[in-house]
Amino acid sequence: MNAVERLHHYAAELQVEAPAVIPDNRPADSWPSSGAIKIRNLEMRYRPELPLVLRNLSLDIQGGEKIGVVGRTGAGKSSIMMALFRLVEPSNGTMEIDGVDICKLGLFDLRTRLAIIPQDPILFSGTIRSNLDPFNKRTDQELWEVLERSDLKTYVASCEGGLDSQVTEFGENLSVGQRQLLCLARAMLTHARVIIMDEATASVDVATDMMLQKAIRVDFAQSTVLTIAHRLNTVIDYSRVLVLDHGEIKEFDTPANLLSRPDSVFSSMVDETGPTNAALLRSLANAAAAGNAIAVEQVLATSKVNSVEPSGAAVSKE
Question: Could you give all domains of the chain from N- to C-terminal order, each with its CATH number?
């Protein structure tokens, strides 16, 4: 009877997701073209009886901006990602990408136009090819190109079968770094204009971290990138930083402007990383504000030993 009860719950009581495709409201093939995001009065809760996890969020993100999303545990960082992918439907408010209300699109049309590089890389049983191009839309040349740009070409070429070499369940036959780089290659292949990164550098080695940071600056230079940050070093040179607290926007400005105010929340979070790392972060923010990208890259490349998560609750994992 437990089985019968469970089947009844799945069949009759669970809420069904929105349609995959809405024939009368499909976006253009070129959408999104710039990746501009406009959010107005967004509210979201995980169940009707639970409190709001996002409260009256309103913000504008220009196409191509790199936005770092920071906050303490429970601030609502990951909830923004879930709202954009409509894993949970908003309770109120609107979200637009390039002028299109994404709440009125079919889920297939929405989710295939966005890209995500998760903290825990997601792979499926199958082949390298099926994990990179699940809908079989790309040529072999395109697949090899993204593997080369993600530093995986040599490894895949050495595998028996190449692109058709097997990937076991959850990608267990690959290292964590290789799985993360494969997710990076998959995002590159989509040419998405909006990319969500759930702090993809949190559990990888220095070389993989540098490869991911390079991809943000080079391969995703024209894309809008939202990084849910667990380490402040990875977002200190971004266009702007969004500071959340209990689902509300506390601050939204450039890192340099926020750090110029000693009483800002972001400034206190930087100070909690320790005096040495805080000084490094402030110098990086000022170099980025001055447009000195070369100096930023050089300092980041030589300071990985300091690129650690604050020991306190400054930027905790949700």
Answer: 31-123+174-306 (3.40.50.300)
